[in-house]
Amino acid sequence: MKWKKVMACVLVLSLMGGSTLLFADSVQERVRVWLNGRELKDGGYVIDGKTYVPVREFDGAVDWNSKTGNVEVIKPNVHIFLFKGDTVFGNVNRGKLKFNVFSQVDSLNNDIHAVKVAIEDPSGHVKDIQSQVVQDRKDNFWFRTYDFTYDFKTSGKYSVGFYVQVKPDSGFVKVAEKVITALN
To answer: Helix/strand/coil (H, E, C) string of 71-118?
Structure first.
């Protein structure tokens, strides 16, 4: 009698597991997603003919409001200019260079806590340049760093990033970048 109950449970569980797998395969298909020439890490899924992509993949800060049940993607329009003295530049030669970063921010329609500018070398090492708490809510503002000296040790592409921090207890998220190419 016991073996009949065990066999019935095994049969029921087998049917449930098999049908679940068939259902999952028919509903979702994993797809590769490219944004501005770079493949997104997590990709996306096609479910019932619609493509779904994680919102964190779009280089914006994501804020979850549990009271309203809303997800807000914070992606202001940011223009980054690099100044050596009064001269704007884009490419550099290897070696040390004293410069500052000027960021023009507009279309910021959400409250944020702070902003930061940092530089990432070709190997992925990030060095913070300057950060600042945002005192008043503004939809547009300028943020200029102090002059600082940076050593472009190797040839390659360096990324100067503009980051936002949504809340004091959250991390900084890069929302814009300017690429510097170090030559020779």
So the answer is: EEEECCEEEEEEEECCEECCEEECEEEEEEEEEEEECCCCCCCEEEEE
